Amino acid sequence: MAASTPLLWDAADERDVDSDHSRPPLPTTGSAGGSSSTSFGVRLLKSPKVLGDGIMNRLTYALNGMMDVDPEQMRHNQIGRASDKISLLEDQLEMLSNDMALVNTSTQDNLDRFQKQKVRDLKGSLIAMARMHLEWAEKNLEIWKEAKIAVDQV
Questions:
Q1: What average pLDDT is seen over the chain?
Q2: Mean pLDDT within 132-149
Q3: What is the C-alpha separation between 39 and 6, in angstroms, rounded?
Q4: Following DSSP, what letter does each residue of the chain receive, concatenated?
Q5: Mean pLDDT value of segment 126-143
Q6: Alpha-carbon radius of gyration of the chain
Q7: In the predicted model, what is the mean pLDDT of residues 107-134?
């Protein structure tokens, strides 16, 4: 069981963290039948001071890698990054302008189609209303003719 348990602190990680490679890594214990507290493949950690030194060394190395010591080189790098951003933004502007033109064309086509449909619907409604008005006027004319005949008979 102890042989398959992963180590919590690997010696390879320790060598990467420490800038001082002269210290040998701490031994790991992983005996199969051992009853000590380290028999599960758990390794005793270094003292906080030594552990802190390793973290500080790694952090210092990372920060030194990010900082440019030469101001001229740093300025040149910033100009290069800025020109890359500008070209990327110009490409995006062109792409968005093309998209906007397509959206405008599509919207205008939809508005034109809507306007034509609205005119057709209004024309149909007015024709239907005119037919109903014509029927009403014909019925009204018949009623007045009947009323005139009734008045003439009296």
A1: 77
A2: 96
A3: 12
A4: -GGGSPPSS-HHHHHHH-S-TTSPPPP----SS--STTTTS--PPPPHHHHHHHHHHHHHHHHHHHS-S-HHHHHHHHHHHHHHHHHHHHHHHHHHHHHHHHHHHHHHHHHHHHHHHHHHHHHHHHHHHHHHHHHHHHHHHHHHHHHHHHHHH-
A5: 97
A6: 45
A7: 97
Q: Which pLDDT belongs to residue 55?
A: 80
Q: Which residues of 54-69 are buried (b: 16+ CB within 10 A; e: fewer)?
A: beeeeeeeeeeeeeee
Half-sphere exposure of 153 (CA within 13 A, CB side): 6
Q: Which residue has the tokens 């397509």?
A: 102
Query: Could you tell me the two tokens for 5?
Result: 């348990």
